[in-house]
Fold Sugar transferase.
Amino acid sequence: MLQLGIKRVMDVLFALLALVVLSGVLLSISLAIKLDSKGPVLFKQERLGKNGKAFHIYKFRTMIVGAETKGRGIFQDENDDRITKVGKLLRMTSLDELPQLFNILKGEMSFIGPRPPLTYYPYPADEYTDEQKVRFQFLPGMTGYAQVMGRNSLSWEEKIHYDVDYVDNYSLGLDMKIFILTIYKIMQREHVHHPEAAETPLNKKA
C-alpha cells in the first residue's frame, strides 16, 4: 500500500528531525531523572507490536525502581506515591514517551497507530479474537485513534474497537487528524488517568 510506504518514510525522517531538535530536551530530562531518584533513565517494557510480535518499548522512567513489586503492583493512579516528582511532570506533558523515537527508527513503532498493549494485558496475544487481531496489522504508535477518542476513559474493548476502525479506514489524512487532536489533548490534559485506577497498568497511561 503506497500510503503505508509514505507513512514509514515520514516516520523515519520526522523521528530523526525530532531527535536532533529535541536533543537538548532529552539530555535535560535524563539529567533531571538521575538527580531526582536512583535508577536508570529509561524504562523498558515488553509490549505486543506488529503481527503480535513482542518488543521492548522505551520510556523515560517516571516511577521508583521496582515499582511493579510494591504498592498496587502493576496498577497505578494519578496520586500513586511511587511516581517520582520529575515523573509526574513527564506524565502530565507526555514527555516520558519521547524515547519511543528510537523504537520508530528501529522499525518497531510509528508516530500514529494502535498503542502497543502489554504482552499479557488485557489479553495474551493468542487470546485476541480474529477481529481484534486486525489491530496488529499495523505498527503500534506513540499515539493513536483510541487515544484521541478517549484514552484511559475508554474500556479496553472500546480502545480495540477504535484500533480496528483505524486499520480498516487508514489514510494519511486520518493520521494528520489524529496528530492534531493529540496535540490538543496533551494541552488540555484530557483523559490522562482512568476513572478506575485498577484499570490502568503500571507505566501504561494509554
